[in-house]
Amino acid sequence: MRYTVHKLFAAWDFEKEEQWLNEMSAKGLELVSIGWCKYIFKDGNKNEYKYRIELLENLPAHAESISYIRFLEDMGIEHIGSFFRWVYFRKKTQDGDFDIYSDIDSKIKHYRRISVFVGILGLANLMPAISNAINYFNNDFMRGFPIFILNGVVAVTLITGYFILLNKIIKLKKDKQLYE
Amino acid sequence: MNENNALTEAVYYILLSLTKPLHGYGIMQNICSLSNGRINLAAGTLYGALTTMLERGWIIAVDCDNNSRKKEYEITSAGNAVLKKELARLNELAANGEKILGGAK
User: Fold this and answer.
1) pLDDT per residue over B84-102, tens digit each?
2) What is the largest CA-CA distance in chain B?
3) Of B10, B44, B70, the CB nearest to A100
4) A117-135 pLDDT, tens per residue?
């Protein structure tokens, strides 16, 4: 039987998303397909798989992504789905611990990739927020709903997410002073 | 890049594993056993390291005849030179450590 769950996770909360997928797996629900805010599970053995999520540098169809995903598959890591540049992987729990990156530099690189993604989206919302606000107060177009508030909330949320990721990067950089 | 820089232990062990041709999964297993289970090299980290080392000419990709999907890698003479230099560096570190900490176990 298949179950569809609709849930929204922020880009900077991808680790919480991984945790949620692993909790579902522990209950015997295996993720088999994903879409935007949409997760499709099927019944399976409890805790058979562990899940990880990564934001790729390029779209999954790109040659470099294909080469990377193929390499991971040779290492027993299954690619179960993608959304934009986000890829979802799983590996059998019995095969051992599942991390995609075990070194600090790669972890920083990944966080940074996500922070750039989030930051650009944040700025992309900040611009219309400011210009719509100006328009609104000049009474140019929007006499009705002050759409700049919507843009503003989204922009602030994204920018906050950017700083959350920046914080994670700073913590890792501190570790790098001592360890690999 | 300065040639006197230390290699990461992952890169050191990867190079050490590739004195004979080996594929990704084999490298990971070999490192795990060489380090007595201490190092569990993650797939993404391994991929990044292999890509960089290929770019630098420290290793080459060898086409495996029976299974064309499982690419194997092997160390080059440039990689060997890097490895020897790194071993010398590690010996220096260990020797000084033994001298100063004086075999206190």
Assistant:
1) 999 999 999 999 999 999 7
2) 52
3) B44
4) 999 999 999 998 888 888 8
Residues of chain B with Cβ-Cβ distance to A106 below 8 Å are: 44-45, 48
Alpha-carbon Rg of chain B, whole angstroms?
15
Interface A:B, Cβ pairs < 8 A? 48
pLDDT attached to residue B104: 57
Residue A62 and residue A60: Cα distance in Å, rounded? 5
* pTM, to two decimals: 0.89
Within an 8 Å CB–CB cutoff, is residue B27 touching chain A? Answer: no
Measured between alpha carbons, how far is A152 from A126 in angstroms, rounded to an integer? 6
The beta strand positions in chain A, using DSSP E, are 2-6, 29-35, 38-43, 49-55, 78-83, 86-92
Backbone angles phi, psi at A8, to 5 degrees: -110, 125
Q: Do B42 and A68 touch (CB under 8 A)?
A: no
CB–CB of B70 and A74 under 8 A?
yes
